[in-house]
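Hi R.,

As promised, here are both runs. First protein below:
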Amino acid sequence: MARITAGIGCSHVPAIGVAMDTGITEQPYWQPVFKGFDFSRQWMKDNKPDVVFLVYNDHCTAFDASCIPTFALGCAETFAPADEGWGARPVPIVRNHQKLASHIAQSVILDEFDLTIMNEMEVDHGLTVPLSAMFGEIPQDGEWPCLVVPLAVNVVQYPAPTANRCFQLGRAIRRAIDSFPEDLNVQIWGTGGMSHQLQAERAGLINAEWDTTFLDMMAGDPDAARQISHLEFLRETGSEGIEMVMWLVMRGALDEKVTEVHRHYHVPASNTAVGHIILENHD
């Protein structure tokens, strides 16, 4: 049977992708950001999954104000990197495990979670930057080391789903993957965050103390994390900190007790905080 072996939380700061694509990762500004992923990249080589179930948010490329699905599951064969206004990132096309994606769609919808099924979708930096951060530089004509099932979550236009709803969806995804008959090593990634605000009077907001507490909750107290309200996310982490609800999908799919094997937190990267954690299931 398929099994979820680990969960990863990772910021998807677009400037991380730019730094990699333009070859400036060794500059003094970027060195501490990428140093925190040295362990992660080796860990990925040692624990390479067959499939990554990757929870991310679209930044008005696949979706805009005309169509805003709360949860959109990618079921296409492939997903091309999107042109976000300055050309598509020079990274490989993302390839799906369509049978697993279809199985998850059926299982989760029959588990009473309404998903939008995407049979055609481009993916932006929300998805490709975490892949680059974790796997390192891969030529555009190469292949990502594993298949990827994408789940896009609306955290751009309120109302976003609650932390608890995302946590419960993670549990439903866990049930779906556990019931898939093929022997697969699956990791689930929650991306986005951490604290940041991109506009208005609080632009540039970073709340490192709150971010650290959130990472602690991911490792040891997910029940507290899933009770965080929209108001608290907005007040404590800025208008874009709501992206962290996507980490709750990841955490809901893991065992109640997990082992934290790595953590990385750095300020600043562009105008945001970078947060990253690797959690392993016990079984």
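And here is the second one, sequence first, then its structure tokens:
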Amino acid sequence: MKSFAIATVLMALALSLGGCISAPIPLTPQTEQRLLAQAPVRFLLTFDDGPSASGYNNPSRSVVADLAKNPLLPGIKAVFFVQTEASRAGGSPRGRKTMEREHAAGHILAFHTATAFHTNHRWLNDAELESTLTQGAADIASITGAPPLLVRPPFWNYDKRTFAAYQRHGMHVLLTDLSANDGKIWGFNGSPRRRANLYRQLSVVRERIALGELPTVEGVIPVVVTFHDINRYTARHLQEYLQILMDSARINGVKTAVEPFYTDHATLERAALARTVKEVDEPVHLPGVWNWVWDADSH
């Protein structure tokens, strides 16, 4: 089963990162009319797998700088799902210092892994899972003063056992609505279809918004977006990605809030918690092929 899971993850990565991208779902008059009754959206930015431990042109620090200063909305706050013990991430002195900078800048530090590698939590035995959650929570609390409230399971994957473990540690699972599909770190490092990808994904999310399936939180609908801050391509193009999100909303007929991104830590945290998975059996909508991958893995 584990070898099959590894194979499906690798296949999913190949498909999601390099596969064909369908055209956006056409905007029908009925959907357009339904959208008028919905609140505007605000993009809730999240970053996985960091912080970078690089001493050269550190991509995580570049991301933080561009969130602070950009043409669209200076002072954007984001959620960073960190790998607290990985040697190429938070397990290094530079990585820990970067997490401290992220926290000081008003961003949220959330849990991703506390293993040496990007390990699926389902592959850990009970003792290993308990250890990694305890260690990760302590790592983050040592910087922020409090254990993390948010967790993003590696590869978006969880089951009843891991979900219950997250709950015991006071962590809530936050998945995503949109994915930049930018998880390519080695080899070819680019995203030539980045616009088409986000245009298409937001058209799918737009249909759910029109049906009232996404919650309104403090007058806006939080739409969760996932990037990878250890990806140098993402770091170099983050300001472009912000504009692509705005263009995607316009092309798909989705109205955005006056402030289209979050700029306040507490407001961001409340919105993120509102979008978390409440029950382990709750149906989830992951972008791309990920729902299919984990449905296949469970059979």
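A quick note on the second one: The chain has one domain: 23-287. Let me know what you think.

Best,
J.
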